[in-house]
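Repro case for the chain-ordering regression, as requested:
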Amino acid sequence: MTGPDATPPAYPATPRTVPTRHRERAAYDRASVHAILDEAFLCHLGFVRDGAPVVLPTLYARVGERLYVHGSTGSRPVRMGASDPGLAVCLTVTHVDALILARSAFHHSLNYRSVVVHGTAHRVTEAEEVRTALDAIVDQAVPGRSADSRPANARELAATAVLRLDLAEVSAKVRTGGPADDPEDAGLPYWTGTVPLVRGYGAPVPADDLDPSVALPDYLSAL
Amino acid sequence: MTGPDATPPAYPATPRTVPTRHRERAAYDRASVHAILDEAFLCHLGFVRDGAPVVLPTLYARVGERLYVHGSTGSRPVRMGASDPGLAVCLTVTHVDALILARSAFHHSLNYRSVVVHGTAHRVTEAEEVRTALDAIVDQAVPGRSADSRPANARELAATAVLRLDLAEVSAKVRTGGPADDPEDAGLPYWTGTVPLVRGYGAPVPADDLDPSVALPDYLSAL
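-- result from build under test --
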């Protein structure tokens, strides 16, 4: 665990991963970053096109120290990521956990957990890695699902591209706790506290043409 | 309603608001765009810094055909938005409504509603518009809250900057409905259907120092 090849426990802080404000909310340890990434399946992927920023919501998966996103071979980021230098991206994942209602409007806030990854995305060309990534993207949203669906065939693989982004320049930012009003506001007559935001799953709705003999799989009833 | 000053019912499509794939999912009408924006309070704001993309989660509000975000006067996007040409941004809002589980891995999808706004953000300098924007940002998350909290004082206003982004080059993208498997996959023995994702509010938790005589306001019990 202490040899030269051991994975360091934290990502190095860089000028663009150190926030200008609330530095105490930043975290660089792999465990915190991985936990935030593993709880989500949708990211917001930013790239630059003709000098202007573009931010698109897209599915992703984490496999070790790599993130994968996929897209049509004709999509803009995929075509740009296939170029020799790759595609400069910023991939952001955010959980909103609670509304924080302070007595002062100024101190209103959110409890949240976010991860921001900076780096260069490259198109994956090795067939085995493409398959691993596509399975991981399905399993990121519904663990166990990729093994219980028809894998991509040659035509589908030809239409799909995978981009890889290594976890190297990455940080988490986390706010927890209740409101933090200024002491002189303590006597103001406004309700103050935390409103938790909850997420969950509704009951699965079978497709109209599902054979009634196909039971709901365990990985769905467990959600 | 048909005079020269009437607001057109739709945003014009532009090269960067027409998607390369699934054009049938794109919408440009104001009602659809406003509804998606009004149901959220967190966006992912993209801008370019030193040639590379940056995507940060942040609160926003819609007031008519303007979006507002706020930040510390020292924050990077605020400082860049205060410059003469403003700050080129892409502001994206996404709701994920359901997981779509097809029989084929390839046709797995999400039901979602997203809005992508391209444009140039400018710092708001007029004091009345700053106040309107700050109130709107609080009310976007909790309607009615801004009137039931202490407004920002001069010191807080001096520390806070507001950026404005006009709704001009904007599109929505929406997927609804169930899985869309290829006909030849209909007999495969995999469960297929829709898993709704639900969002909601937990019971409000009063701050430790809240005077017990302060009742939970109606706008919170209504959530």
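Ordering looks correct now. The first strand of chain B starts at residue 26 and ends at 27.
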